[in-house]
Amino acid sequence: MTVTFTAATAPAVGFVVTCGCDEATTRAQRFDDYRAAQAAADQTNAAPDQRGPLPGCSMPTVCPEYPLRAEPIDPDGTVPLINISNANAVVVLEALGAPSQPTATDHQDLEPFPTEVPGNGVIIPITVVDAYGELTAEEFLGRVLTALALAPEDAGVPDIQFGRTHLGGRPAGYLQEVLRNLHDLASWCATHERRVVWH
User: Fold this and answer.
1) What is this structure's pTM?
2) Residues near 95 by beta carbon (within 8 Å), at least 6 away in sequence
3) Which SS3 state, helix, strand or coil, does residue 58 take?
4) Residue 24 burial (CB < 10 Å; 0-12/13-18/19+)?
């Protein structure tokens, strides 16, 4: 599971049929409405043996194995999108002063819980995150700048592996790198008068 930081959704200016690769989406034929785009995707998906990679596809040996889909075209072009694993999202949200759990009283508390591997007592932590929210670009940028100024250099966390179970850690400096990416996202949102959202 991940937490995604991006810009608030804006009304689409059209739709394309795509495999999801950025360049393929940029080059794709535009449709005025979703139904027309989805009908074109369905028609192509009905004959999967005849479909090769789309022009601009960055994974030509993988994408033809999966159905095409209709996607909206954002009026501001390609919107920045930052995905962070749940375990790392807790650290990032804490640095931003944002909760990683819902604060409304109608939600049950979700606590991170450990899973004990039988036999040797090794604990593998599983992080449960239910984080979502939105801020103006300016307020989010302020939080990012504060975190960049105050957060200590991230020493990183090693991977945990036991048998076939693997929990990825994070490299040294990860928090600062993500905060710089979030700074770029907030700046983009400010330029395009969009709010920053995470979910």
Assistant:
1) 0.78
2) 147, 151, 175, 179
3) coil
4) buried
- The C-alpha atoms of residue 51 and residue 37 are separated, in whole angstroms, by 17
Q: How do strand 165-167 and strand 15-18 relate by DSSP bridges?
A: unpaired
- Per-residue confidence of the chain (199 residues) as pLDDT tens digits? 789 999 999 999 999 999 999 999 999 999 999 999 999 999 999 987 888 999 999 999 999 999 999 999 999 998 999 999 888 888 999 999 987 665 444 444 444 444 444 455 555 555 666 788 999 999 999 999 999 999 999 999 888 877 787 778 899 999 999 999 999 999 999 999 999 999 9
Q: Write the CB contacts of 91 (distance below 8 Å, at least 6 apart in sequence).
A: 154, 170, 175
Residue 178, Cα to own-chain centre: how many angstroms? 12
